[in-house]
Amino acid sequence: MTDIQIPFGWNSYQSCSKSSCNEVDIEESGISGWRDSNVIISLFFYVAIAGVYDLSIVSENIYREAELLVTIPSIQYSHIAKFNTDNLNLSLGSVHIENSGYVKVNFQGTKSLINRKAGKYPKLKALILSNIENKSAISFVEDSFSSHFGRRGPSVHLRYNLQSKKNIKYFFNEVTVPKNMDAIGTYAMAIGFGQGYFGMQVNSNTERRILFSVWSPQKTDDPKTISAENEIKLLAKGKKTITKSFGNEGSGGQSYLVYPWVTGVAYQFKLVGYPTQDGYSVFSAYFKDPTKFEDYILIASWKRPKIQTYLTGLYSFLENFEPEKGNISRKVYFNNQKAYNNKGKKVNVLSTTFTYDETATKQQRYDYDGGVDNVNGYNLRNCGFFDKTQIKTGETFTKNQ
Q1: Options 2.60.120.200, 2.60.40.10, 1.10.530.10, 1.10.340.30; which CATH number does 151-397 get?
Q2: Among 255, 297, 307, 350, which residue's CB has the most CB atoms within a 10 Å radius?
Q3: Cβ atoms < 10 Å from Cβ of 52
Q4: pLDDT tens digit string along 208-220?
């Protein structure tokens, strides 16, 4: 038998029971700065084996006596946790988890007590599951892993398998995000290649982007350190395209169009790549909204030094870049892929290969999925703590031609 501590700083998210709340701080040290009784803290963990589990809380910084309502909606469990300054570890009793899958535990401060006495709610450190027979039956984002990437959730990818990889100059893809699958932090990346990526993002409640980036050959996360000979050069851009350098994930040239794309529309992406005679390669990205304009519009055209290549390593991915939104599921469809070589000959896309990132590889999160159907095309799904699927990295999906 063993006890397992599930850290709040790696595995919890906040929501609000009314239109707005005073936010709390979710840090690696735990939950702090919590005053608002309308804030709900939700902690997630995965149970592989059904059974009875004993729960308790590790807390610190008890500013005053306090009460928290603890609920597990999926099993109709509720408990009032009563804190005082001498009680840092607090038992929540036993729960019977009948099915394998993700469990969500909600914590909410009681209104009555906070109205009687000012002060913060206790700092929550960890939820303890006691007397566990099989430690591997419980999964969560561990404190030995990055809380940033763990809370973001797994990224999932599709690599396109072409009839031929030789001299691919043009690649086309259609991207559709279904209704209610466009949470803040979503990046539905349509066309990735050996030197960059091109797709659409949800950046805030009011802003969305069509993004195209090309990496510099100089390996650095600081764009200010890139030498002149390694700079990505802008050749052309669309009238409303914003261009600048980027860093923190390699560095290079970034271009984006602020554009109010919506769910349910199959937006069209075209990427062109080819070598030049002066030792560079040119990569140009075009975007089409079939509901607004008849032809593709240019996002940007970048010239990359120290390489002469056509398009290589073509792929798509679905990512959440906002850790605070890793509890919200998202999905995307990729359809009607087309490729042409430098002679204008069509090259068939035969299939895709599914992969995922380190968050899934190290079994920190299981909320990832992918597949194919002959109407909507290939699909990817991630985040939201949905039921574990049987899809494994390296699995191949084939769409009927």
Answers
A1: 2.60.120.200
A2: 255
A3: 9
A4: 999 999 999 999 8
